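Ticket #4471: structure output looks truncated?

Reporter: J.K.
Steps to reproduce: submitted the chain below (372 residues) through the standard prediction queue, then opened the result file.
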Amino acid sequence: MKIVILGTAYPYRGGLAAFNERLAREYQDQGHEVEIYTFTHQYPDFLFPGKTQYSTEAAPENLHIIRKVHSYNPFNWIKVGREIARKKPDLMITKFWLPFMAPCFGTIARMVRRNKHTRIISILDNVIPHEHRIGDKMFVKYFIKPTQGFVAMSKSVLQDLRLFTQDKPAVFSPHPLYDHYGERLPKEKALQLLNLNPEFRYVLFFGFIRTYKGLDLLFSAFADQRLKESNIKLLVAGEFYGDSAPYLKQIKDLQIEDKVELHTDFIPDSEVNRFFSAADIVAQPYKTATQSGVTQIAFHFEKPMLVTNVGGLAEIVPHGKIGYVVEPDSQQIADALCDFFEHQRESAYEANIAEEKKKYSWQKFVKAIHQL
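Returned output as attached by the reporter:
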């Protein structure tokens, strides 16, 4: 088939780009012809909360990435839509995560549908965003109308979709593994590369730091006397998306400065394996969620997880088998971490993860798209 993927890709950074590029490679491995249409302008600078939108790493090899989409220029949407329509791809896949992108993606989809050939499918990270804004529902409706089918990566997102459309075909297929971050390193080597003391055990919080991800709950958990007196530290790896001051003040107020290791620059792809290899367990204390790519990185590196019972996180982390599912409560988080380390559950959970992660292959994900 001829396939167009519409969404984030290099030179942009982060999980969205990683997903689209990995999906393109899977299709190419199966013999299909793939182009990724990505942005010349993704967000206006004043809407972007991080330091930069761009990757500092080399461009991915053997991917056909076309930079032509301007997310907030309506004339561009029509031009790009007509261009894709003329190419008559058999399939166009949009990766939807934010209502801000709905006018752009919705207009391009309308243009492409005019060729009466291309099937238009959307992979949904979210339908209703974590951080609500005026106009969200109107924009989502505009995006949904020209799209012919949907792949939701969590059951909660599938339920949200049904608030907007009852009749369009949609399937649930969980987020596949992020398996392109290299091999797991020996823990001693990873700790050395990160200049971390090997006498300590490490709980990893990974990814952009946003309010809904609940890092404050994790800090409060580390104020628990059992953790304060232990050889366990919290390793925070990810860029602040917002004001860092409340987090730094909380660390000081809780007197846990010696329990927290902060690596709050953006973590490039080439260094991701260091953090996961150094960790004993990965914590995602989210207050709200749909699904998370961090879980799928943890699966790849076969690391036990602690997640909260929100959105779709509990769907893929069987409690007591590969980790813990707790409520978004600092006391429950502290209890689970103490149980993990006191009862030395790491090796048993890792053995279970090796089997559990087989469910999340890219081949299965692509098969779900084709069935749809």
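Triage note (M.O.): checked the attachment and the full token line is present. Residues 89 and 102 are 21 Å apart (CA to CA).
Status: closed, working as intended.
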